[in-house]
Write a structure and sequence with these properties.
FAD/NAD(P)-binding domain; NAD(P)-binding protein; FAD-bd
């Protein structure tokens, strides 16, 4: 008998889920999205954070490579202009505990490019290698019952229509209406938790100045430990010889949208290096703001009842403050859970399959949730959470580890492994990492960014601020 799966949302989570379903032998996979999807790497309305900085961590990239058969997404992205950045040597990072050193040793890498390029590359690869159909449509509900979802209801001129399916995946992102849809099936009482630091993102794109093509990714991180609003800025290389410059400020420290205010904001950070860099660069866009940044966790896996044939993945299950760079990787981890559970079950109709996928996806999201919320609750004016005793203990240990990482490769490696999502946060408590944290940094703190002579010359040549 023919089997049909419907995926709601053609973003990263949706296309990875579609690839998994197609690879698992589902006869027909249909992806529905309310946007008219661009034929080139262009921004679209359905990605509210699409204009801002995105970091594809090593753990997430490894999962994506596993999920899309017959193609290396890494090679495709690099060929399209993405940059591969070494966390150990390829970036300048000022943490709340000072500047991190750059080491001439191997470490995990991440990819940087625009979100538009990343989504377009993944979508194109899936459509080339998998029999997946994408349709423009707005889903307004689920069909079926509390025991089994039978399809989706789609908005249409003259009245809504039903599209039957044996399996439905909600990958509709931050704006999902899954709780309302479940309520319509008689499944009420889903617990939701929102932690909102009030973060506002402001981003402007610049042309990379001549001679600065190899300048490292540069970030001045926000400081959650000083009882003041968090303020940060980042310069990251993206495709087409451009710099994407993203500022972020929590409630009370929001970046402005006017160009002069944007530059002042970067110069007023604990280190003005971002402002110094961009003061001599040519802007290519206006400043774009986004306020859709809260952490939202829907504890669907704890529902007393769950319908067969329905799974929720990506931001629809757990949404993170984008400042931490975890959302895309978590979406890939959830799709990987779907693939592994489908392989074990053997077919879409296996009893309990949807519940097992949901619980596995939730487990893969929990570490990222803990890391994001554990920092956001420290900012003044945060809504939805306060630090508890356990948070304070973890915070104290994390600060000590970060302080040690300024001059200890062992401590820095532990932080990189967790940040890159190659290992769970428990990596920070391995014996070697604990010893490094307790021993502290064997080297004196850096008084400024660890620039090479050539990079210092580039910075001096760009600086128009007189700082």
């Amino acid at each position: 008998m023919s089997r049909r799966a419907v995926v709601i949302g053609a973003g990263l989570a949706g296309m990875l889920a579609a690839s998994v379903l197609s690879t698992a032998g589902v006869d027909e996979v249909i992806v529905l999205d309310r946007d008219e999807l661009p034929e080139e790497p262009e921004h679209r309305r359905g990605l509210p954070q699409g204009r801002h900085a995105h970091l594809l961590m090593a753990g997430g990239l490894a999962a994506m490579e596993e999920l899309v058969p017959g193609v290396s997404l890494r090679k495709r992205l690099l060929a399209a202009g993405a940059h591969e950045i070494s966390l150990s040597s390829g970036m300048l990072a000022r943490t709340p505990e000072g500047w991190l050193r750059r080491w001439r040793r191997e470490g995990p890498v991440m990819l940087t490019c625009s979100r538009a390029l990343l989504d377009w590359t993944v979508r194109a690869a899936v459509l080339e290698h998998c029999p997946v159909e994408v349709r423009k449509a707005a889903v307004v509900g689920l069909t079926g019952s509390a025991g089994r979802v039978r399809g989706v209801r789609v908005a249409a001129v003259g009245g809504d229509t039903d599209l039957d399916a044996d399996f439905v995946v909600d990958a509709s992102g931050r704006g999902t209406r899954v709780v309302t849809w479940l309520d319509g099936l008689g499944l009420a009482g889903v617990r939701e938790h929102t932690v909102d630091s009030g973060l506002v993102n402001a981003t402007r794109v610049y042309r990379v100045p001549e001679g600065a093509e190899r300048f490292p990714l540069t970030i001045v991180q926000s400081d959650p430990y000083v009882s003041r609003p968090g303020r940060s800025a980042m310069v990251l290389p993206i495709e087409d010889d451009r710099w994407m410059v993203s500022c972020g400020g929590t409630r009370g420290g929001e970046p402005p949208a006017d160009p002069e205010g944007f530059l002042r904001y970067t110069l007023d950070l604990p280190d003005p290096i971002v402002g110094r860099l961009i003061s001599g660069a040519e802007p290519l866009t206006d400043v774009h703001l986004s306020r859709s940044t809260s952490n939202v966790r829907r504890y669907l896996e704890n529902s007393a009842r769950w319908p067969e044939g329905f799974v929720v993945l990506g931001d629809a299950l757990a949404t993170f403050n984008p400042a931490y760079g975890h959302g895309m990787s978590v979406a890939a981890f959830g799709a990987r859970v779907l693939g592994r559970e489908l392989e074990r079950a053997g077919h879409l109709g296996a009893p309990g399959l949807a519940r097992r996928v949901l619980r596995g996806a939730a487990r893969s999201a929990d570490p990222a949730w803990s890391m994001a919320v554990g920092q956001d609750v420290l900012y003044p004016g945060v809504r939805g959470g306060r630090p508890g005793a356990a948070d304070r203990v973890v915070t104290a240990y994390t600060r000590r580890m970060t302080r040690a990482a300024a001059g200890s490769f062992a401590a820095a490696s532990a932080i990189w492994d967790v940040t890159s999502m190659r290992t769970p946060p428990t990596r920070m408590f391995h014996p070697g990492a604990v010893l490094a944290a307790l021993a502290g940094s064997p080297l004196a703190p850096l008084t400024g960014p660890p620039l090479t002579p050539g990079e210092r010359e580039v910075l001096r040549g760009l600086d128009r601020t007189g700082v």
